[in-house]
Each structure stands twice: as structure tokens, then as C-alpha cells.
Amino acid sequence: MKVTIGQRELEMGSKYLTELRSSNDIWEDTEALRARLAEDGYLLIRGFHDRERVLSARMDFLRKLQAMGRLDPHAPLEEGVISKENKGGMWGGSAEELQADFPHFLEVVNHPSVMSFFDRLLGGKSMTYDYKWPRAIAHGGNTGAHYDVVYMGRGTKNVYTMWTPFGDTPLELGTLAMCLGSQHYDKIKQTYGEMDVDRDNVATGWFSEDPVEIVDTYGGQWATTAFEAGDVIIFGMYMMHTSLNNRTNRFRISSDTRYQLASEPVDERWIGHKPKGHYAWGKTPQKSVADARKEWGV
């Protein structure tokens, strides 16, 4: 099967793209989960969330998109068919800000089962950032390859992203893809990985929009899979990831949420009653990623 990432078409099973592996086989073995996370850079867990809870939250997002005029009025609401304007939705904000429009969302990502899992995985009391990142990706949309640390690296580096798709998500809808081995790209970690988008004001914050260039230059292999409602993928701040292009006429709805030990330093931009978020990025003329990479020598 062929998929598209940015301007590149990749073949599943080629040197550039393979299948993510599930960690459900070691679900009850905490040490094995930690070892798998260190080895693979991610944990794919099928059925992590209650499916019906996820689908209830999906309907909240669809009703919001409908109110915004972003859905095809002639198609069933639950299908999430994109209107002819092909505009997506980004709803980043605090729990309080999101609760009114998406009452079932926090029931998924802040659920006691989620927090107890991170308590177990991290070996102590965990916390989640107050700021959350739910979004709806329209036709053609995708995200360039990046490390999350450049957006949220001011506290501990032991922060973990949980990517949750709100609905069954086949490859053509635009699934997340991990770059296997990228947590060991030492030169990139020491240069790009030290960037702070608010301090350095580099456009997009993405390292590259070309998945082939990354593999050819630095090694590794991209990996993705089809997801069902309830599945998640969890990964650290130095795991390069991207998304496949949404090649359908339906929205891909998903969220990024972050978790860490409560005892470790927290990036102040993402916590509190009304987190300040990215306060400087994009406010002045930005440096291009290409220029920044020349300076870094990567």
C-alpha cells in the first residue's frame, strides 16, 4: 500500500516505511513497557481508552465543526464529511476553556485509568498539562517531522505525548508516523533539539517536511499503522514524528496531551488556569528552518 507524507509517496514495507508494533502483549509488565519505550521510542496500545467514551467525545468535536460551518450539510454528522471550503479546526486551550464545547473530551484524556497508567509507567504520581491540543485535520493536511521538545522543553525532558485519534483512523485519513531510531539522532538532539520556538522564533518548528531526506541522511525508518477508536500511541520528547496526509473527504480528529511526573519541573507555558502558551513565537520576523539547519550543521 502507498501512502503520502508531504510531497513524498511511500510504500508500506519499503526501506522507508514499516508497521508500528503493539505493546499490548506486555501491558501488565511495567518494566517491559519501560524497556520497550526506551528501545522503540514509543508504545502503541490498542484499546487503551474505552471506545464508547472516545466516540462520545468525537460527536462533541463534530457538533462543534458543524456549528463552525466546516461540515458538509448534506452528509450524516457522524461521518465528519468536510465542507467544500476544506478548513480544519484547532482548539488548543486549558481544560476550563475546552470543557464547554467538548464536555466528553477530558473524560477521555484525563480519565483515572490514564493517570494511573502514567503513575505506573513513570514510577510516581503523574500530572498532565492543563493545556490540551485537540484538532481536526482537513483534506490534504499533515504535520511535518519534529521533536516535541522544541515546543515544551523548559521543564523536565521526561514528558510524554499521548496521541489519541477520535474515531477509527485508517492510513488514508492521516495517521501518526514515528521515525524509528530518531531518539538516538545525537547531532539533531544537540542542535535542533535544543531549540525553543518562543526564544528562537524558527518558522513552524518542524525539522523537515521530507521524510525520505531524514531516513537517507540520518538512518532509521518511518512506521505507522491503522488506528481504531480507543487506541493510543505514547512517545517521548525526542521521538521524531510526522503524520500522513489526509487523503479523504472526512476529518481526522485527534488530540495531543502531555504527561510527566508531578515531582519534576514543569514548562510554565502549559499549566495553570489560563496557560500563556507560545507567547513570543511568530510575533516577530521568523528564521526559516532551512537557515537554522545551516547554522546547526544538520
Q: Topology of this structure?
A:
Layout (H helix, E strand, L loop, with lengths): L1 E4 L2 E4 L5 E3 L10 H11 L1 E4 L5 H17 L21 E2 L4 H5 L5 H5 L2 H11 L3 E3 L4 E5 L22 E6 L10 E5 L5 H5 L6 H4 L10 H8 L2 E4 L7 E5 L4 E3 L8 E10 L27 H8 L2
Parallel strand pairs: 3-10
Antiparallel strand pairs: 1-2, 4-11, 5-7, 6-13, 7-13, 8-11, 8-13, 9-10, 9-12
In a few lines, what is going on in this structure?
The chain has helices spanning about 30-40, 50-65, 95-100, 105-110, 110-120, 185-190, 195-200, 210-220, 290-295, and strands at about 1-5, 10, 15-20, 40-45, 90, 125-130, 135, 160-165, 175-180, 220-225, 230-235, 240-245, 250-260.
Give descriptors for this structure.
298 residues; alpha+beta; Jelly Rolls; seven-stranded antiparallel sheet; four-stranded mixed sheet; 9 helices; 13 strands; 25% helix
User: Helix amount, in percent?
Assistant: 10-25%
Strand portion, in percent? 15-25%
Shape: globular
> Which series of helices and strands comes N to C?
EEEHEHEHHHEEEEHHHEEEEH
Average pLDDT over all residues:
97
Label the CATH architecture: Sandwich
Query: How large, in whole angstroms, is the Cα Rg?
Result: 18 Å
Q: Can you tell me the CATH class?
A: Mainly Beta
Biggest beta sheet summary: 7 strands, antiparallel
Question: What is the CATH superfamily label?
Answer: q2cbj1_9rhob like domain
The CATH topology corresponds to: Jelly Rolls
- Which spans have pLDDT < 50 for at least 5 consecutive residues? none
> By helix and strand content, what is the structural category?
alpha+beta
How many domains is the backbone divided into? 1
Total DSSP E strands: 13
**Number of separate helices:** 9
